[in-house]
Amino acid sequence: MPQLEQLFATLRSSDEEVRAWTSDILQGVSAPPEELVPQLQIFTTDHAPAIAGWACKLLSRTQHTSSASISALKNALSNYPELSVRELAAMALGNCQEISSDALLALKQAASATEYPRLARLASAAIAQHYSMSK
Fold it and tell me: How many CB atoms lie within 10 A of CB 129?
């Protein structure tokens, strides 16, 4: 995936078919190359929710989730304005083998967010998944 930035740019297309094809391609990425991780971390803050969401998904598929990736996911969970991206960040954190205490705290806060029941459910599941992996 040497052209990740160009591929992500197609997620900004006004053509729904182009965005769908791009999502299909990204769905097929099992583990992005480690050299793309810093770029994915930056993309978690992109103003386009589709780009930020895919960055969260792809970060959760890396071989070894770095502390910088955990931090990027935690920040997306806590601060991204679009709820769907916050949900994807919660799911991504649940897929990480180890997470920071800050990320765990952010998941706990999201799990208690009664105004967003789906986010709360996903964050609770991520917490449970984290504890089951750490045993």
Answer: 16
* Cβ atoms within 10 Å, residue 110: 24
Q: Using an 8 Å Cβ cutoff, are 65 and 97 in contact?
A: yes
pLDDT digits (tens, 9 = 90+) for 85-117: 999 999 999 998 889 999 999 999 999 999 999
* Longest CA–CA separation in the chain, Å: 46
The tally of CA atoms less than 13 A away on the side-chain side of residue 54 is: 27
**What's the CA gap between 66 and 79, in Å, rounded?**
20
Residue 87's contacts (CB-CB under 8 Å, 6 or more residues apart) are: 118, 119, 122
Name the token pair of 104: 């765990």
77 in Cβ contact with 90 (< 8 Å)? yes
- Spatial CB neighbours of 1, under 8 Å, sequence gap ≥ 6: 7, 29, 32, 33, 36
